[in-house]
């Protein structure tokens, strides 16, 4: 297998984050695993050859700058940024607090800008690169109970679109995966014991879609792609 | 003319804000004029019978809470909230700073939440009320040069949609006007001297649409309505 | 009241069609009432001063040409076209027949083109006019059981958008009302006896929105406007 | 390479149709090549092992029924339907004729229904299958000069969505590729000699996206995917 460059997974957790890390490590990338604390990364660093974990608060400009500088110097130039950091406070407009609203924006939107700004320059210089945002149903619709989450995800989608419109022509493939359903996790399984297997989105399948997006021919790039279980009502 | 209740215009400037204030004052409302400083409100307070100006930083929870408490005690219960506060830093993802990105969100999105949370409770208790957000082209699309503005407006739209989905049934008409074009202002005229009259959106026409939205029969409410000049290419 | 010109309601039935006719007759227009047979128009012709009924099959080029020629010669130049003809065969892709699919397209889409082509020329010459399409939820989404209806309504919306983009600059306001809910009719009431009043869209309210669209200032036209009951889940 | 079942390409021409046929033949499928006349299929039948050409007018129920019966009996059960038939009459609402409007609908929309209805039953019985529609920019937007084409493509998209919503749960992956740009053909190259290579969409890349859609894990299916050249302004 061809040895590839560095892929950063921002927001490594037990679901899509870990699956993305596995998929890109399996595909030959050296993977940087970003999460708030080492605990969330679990044993991924040991499991994946060449992978390296970094504690990073994606909502902090200083933390992001420090982390990406370390990645560049320790692992090399970044070819792929997979932005999976997310936060899901649910509640309607009356029950959410301004603090929850802001914190949702900080993780889903602001962090997406901060991490992107770290990689755009070098990718432009190289004339190539991929930036994949992991979105959600809420990226497209503001539901009654997603008064904090949906605005943050809609802003992330809008940022992704703005970036795609200015960066594609520089060879940087900015795109968005709309995860439209419930991801298969220990936590979600426990909360929805009555649901069949077919109800859940397999993180490995989301990661396969991200992988495919990063391999598309530049003459036919996709911007926005859903990942939705076949049994979902939509 | 029937005397109506209180309408709040958050974000009074020389364009849509002033026009909204005039339209609702002309329609019998007592209008509260919110802006950062008295200067922006100009002579509107004198011009409009019963209108009253308030210095308010819509991005500050304390300032918003203080202002709305004053309005309630000085003018009475709020029937209409017209959220017109906006900020238009333009630039692509590489040229904007995180500070500009945040400040755009704070005025367009966070302030929309803060002001809304001040009026929802009393409106619910009354079983009636209108909350109108003034959006922009960027509410729907992230253009290459609106990397700061579009995410903030998209988040505002998503918040409005979430609110509509939870508050309509309580009798509160939450809606959004997508201002899709260049508003007719001294500033915009000066910057685009070659454009004909027909190129510009008249603020009074935007205000008419807001007025109409606030008078719609509840059996046929609109959520999202464009205000676009007939000569615009879209 | 100022005497206005001619408004054509294509597709007069007991719901939105009759309400549109009443609203525009009440506003001073001479109204041409188009329906397949005189029976559907009921007593509207007698009820509305100056109104005149026409038998018209909107899906037939000859019938449409004959009808509009008669309107022009008998009532005068047409200022407003309200296209309300619609047909609602429901069923999923397996249960509908190609004939139902075609007939839905013929009434909702093809007829919209035929009637529009009759009025565009004179409206352009006059530099003014309004063409309002009455759409539905299905204009935006293909539901599992609207395999015949949704494609026809989506095509109508796309045609309206294409027309707006080429005709607005000639002074013709092409727009679309998305009726998103169940219209209040004897038939729908009988079928849904358990629903409260607030569940239904009042045809008069839809007609008010059409009226408002035809009076908008050209500097701030709307293209697409919902008519949705406040209690609707969306 | 594993031998797979039958893939039908409806609408084989020198661009996407031929590329789809090559991609799926290369992937192990027996490919049925549908076009109005043998001439359009060129030498594909000879080039692709096991492929077979069929003359078919997709807008005719009889022709479609006859063709699919022949495919089933000669090649076997159909696993994949790639609906690529399309027609691109361009013109604004005033310049197109009703005949062009209808013929565009017949090829892009009606034919999509007719072909789909031929394969759904057996795919449901098998609990698996893929139906991929090849859309266009016009699937999403009605441009001023696509008054005939856009409504047909919007209707096709709406039909695809309706089908996806009812058939996914039966194991049939219905999806849509939005080809947003100019496909690289002898004809388009000749018409746009000044454009660089990067301006054109490579048919092979569109076919790769179709292939990928047909291999997605059912826990994370995509419905709508763009194929857009990186240099495109959108």
The tally of domains of chain A stands at 1
CATH class division of chain A: Alpha Beta
What separation lies between the terminal Cα atoms of chain A?
Answer: 39 Å
| SS content category of chain A | alpha/beta
User: Could you tell me the mean pLDDT of chain A?
Assistant: 96
List the chains of the largest interface with their residue counts.
A-B, 41 and 42 residues
Number of strands of chain A: 9
Q: What are the segments of chain A in which pLDDT stays under 50 over at least 5 consecutive residues?
A: none
Q: Could you state the oligomeric state of the chains shown?
A: homotetramer
Give Rg of chain A in angstroms: 17 Å
Helix count, DSSP H or I runs of 4 or more residues of chain A: 8
Strand percentage of chain A: 15-25%
> What is the assigned CATH homologous superfamily of chain A?
NAD(P)-binding Rossmann-like Domain
Q: Strand order across the biggest sheet of chain A? A: 3-2-1-4-5-6-9
Overall spatial form of chain A: globular
**What profile does the largest beta sheet of chain A have?**
7 strands, parallel
Q: State the order of secondary-structure elements of chain A, H for helix, E for strand.
A: EHEHHEHEHEHEEHEHE
The CATH topology of chain A is Rossmann fold
Please estimate the helix content of chain A.
40-55%
So, CATH architecture of chain A? 3-Layer(aba) Sandwich
């Amino acid at each position: 297998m061809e040895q590839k460059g560095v892929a950063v997974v921002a927001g490594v957790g037990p679901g899509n984050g870990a699956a993305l890390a596995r998929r890109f490590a399996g595909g030959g990338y050296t993977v940087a695993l970003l999460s708030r604390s080492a605990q969330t990364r679990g044993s991924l660093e040991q499991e994946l050859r060449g992978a390296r974990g970094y504690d990073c608060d994606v909502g902090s400009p200083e933390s992001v700058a420090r982390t990406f500088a370390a990645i560049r110097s320790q692992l090399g130039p970044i070819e792929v940024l997979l932005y999976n950091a997310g936060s899901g406070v649910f509640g309607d407009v009356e029950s959410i607090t301004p603090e929850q609203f802001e914190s949702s924006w900080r993780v889903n939107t602001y962090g997406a800008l901060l991490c992107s700004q770290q990689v755009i320059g070098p990718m432009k210089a190289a004339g190539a690169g991929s930036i994949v945002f992991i979105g959600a149903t809420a990226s497209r619709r503001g539901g009654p109970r997603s008064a904090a989450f949906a605005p943050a995800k809609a802003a992330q989608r809008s940022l992704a679109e703005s970036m795609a419109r200015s960066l594609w022509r520089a060879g940087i493939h900015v795109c968005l995966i709309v995860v439209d359903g419930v991801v298969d996790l220990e936590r979600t399984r426990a909360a929805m014991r009555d649901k069949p297997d077919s109800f859940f989105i397999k993180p490995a399948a989301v990661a396969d879609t991200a992988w495919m997006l990063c391999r598309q021919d530049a003459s036919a790039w996709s911007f926005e792609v859903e990942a939705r279980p076949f049994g979902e009502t939509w």
